[in-house]
């Protein structure tokens, strides 16, 4: 399944992308896409719905974050060797973890806001793991049982805030609009191997990142198992798995107001964002 939420911000309706690529309205069947729908039993109920019986959505409505109920975003840093090298940081021997504030959550085509005082706004295409059931101290060989599906994610970062103001990375990672998610939540049955997904990112039409999740240092199953050692993961929680090389920090180039970012992960859809000035 490819689940979506569409409509104006705060008034999104549930939908799905049918096999023919068209958006169908799910609001006559469910109230939303949240914890219940992410659970194994909830997904089985959704799979019994005939997409052809759902109303077709015409036009090109805004797509919001494809599901609700995200209690936390756990991010994995430096999970591609070449990215660690371009950042001038050691290749990690264990996953590097940091948190992104849930107030950074943004629709996949909503604008990125240049924060006040920002000078080094950066991009990072990533694969996101959506948790489907409560997870605590999960063995690696059972980790897939706790995954509801996958999303594309842009780990927008302000590098000066992150690296030049002391303390933790979080202050450069959690600004408003720094967490575009989607456009779709793709159930895990449609992603037979999350370690074989192409991912890419363009800025103003120029390819900046072009890689594959097979280059990860720590695979998805190890990440879920590792994170669940340190905190309880709840349905809807999002783990973003690191970015490949090609970020602005490594290129000495950063985003400016008016720039356009496009990115995608194989099978998970495409995002597009414009950078706008802070309000």
Structural account:
It is a single chain. The protein is of the alpha+beta class and 279 residues long. The protein has two domains: 2-53, no CATH class; 73-276, Fumarylacetoacetase-like, C-terminal domain (Fumarylacetoacetate hydrolase, domain 2). Helices cover 14% and strands 29% of the residues. The chain has six helices and 18 strands. It has helices at residues 35-38, 40-47, 81-86, 159-163, 220-230, 248-251, and strands at residues 2-6, 13-17, 23-25, 73-77, 96-100, 105-106, 112-113, 121-122, 125-131, 147-154, 157-158, 179-180, 185-187, 198-203, 206-212, 238-240, 260-265, 269-276. The strands form four sheets. Strands 3-2-1-13-10-9-16-4-5 form a nine-stranded mixed β-sheet, with helices on one face. Strand 17 and strand 18 form a beta hairpin. The mean pLDDT is 96.
């Amino acid at each position: 399944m490819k689940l979506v939420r569409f409509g104006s911000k705060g008034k999104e309706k549930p939908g799905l992308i049918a096999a023919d690529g068209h958006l169908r309205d799910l609001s006559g069947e469910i109230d939303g896409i949240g914890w219940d729908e992410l659970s194994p039993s909830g997904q089985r109920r959704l799979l019994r719905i005939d997409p052809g019986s759902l109303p077709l959505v015409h036009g090109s409505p805004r797509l919001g974050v494809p599901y609700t109920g995200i209690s936390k975003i756990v991010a994995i840093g430096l999970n591609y060797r070449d990215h660690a090298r371009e950042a001038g940081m050691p290749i990690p021997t264990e996953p590097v973890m940091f948190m992104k504030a849930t107030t950074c959550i943004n629709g996949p085509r909503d604008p990125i806001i240049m924060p006040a005082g920002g000078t080094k706004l950066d991009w990072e295409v990533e694969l996101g793991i959506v948790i489907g059931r409560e997870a605590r101290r999960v063995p690696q060989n059972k980790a897939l049982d706790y995954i509801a599906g996958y999303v594309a994610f842009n780990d927008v970062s302000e590098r000066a805030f992150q690296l030049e103001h002391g303390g933790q990375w979080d202050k450069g990672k959690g600004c408003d609009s720094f967490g575009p998610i989607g456009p779709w939540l793709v159930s895990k049955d449609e992603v037979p191997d999350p370690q074989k997904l192409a991912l890419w990112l363009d800025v103003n039409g120029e390819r900046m990142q072009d890689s594959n999740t097979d280059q990860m240092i720590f695979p998805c199953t190890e990440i879920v198992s590792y994170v669940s050692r340190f905190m309880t993961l709840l349905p809807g929680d999002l783990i973003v798995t690191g970015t490949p090389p090609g970020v602005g920090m490594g290129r000495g180039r950063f985003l400016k107001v008016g720039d356009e970012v496009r990115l995608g992960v194989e099978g998970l859809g495409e995002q597009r964002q414009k950078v706008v000035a802070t309000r």
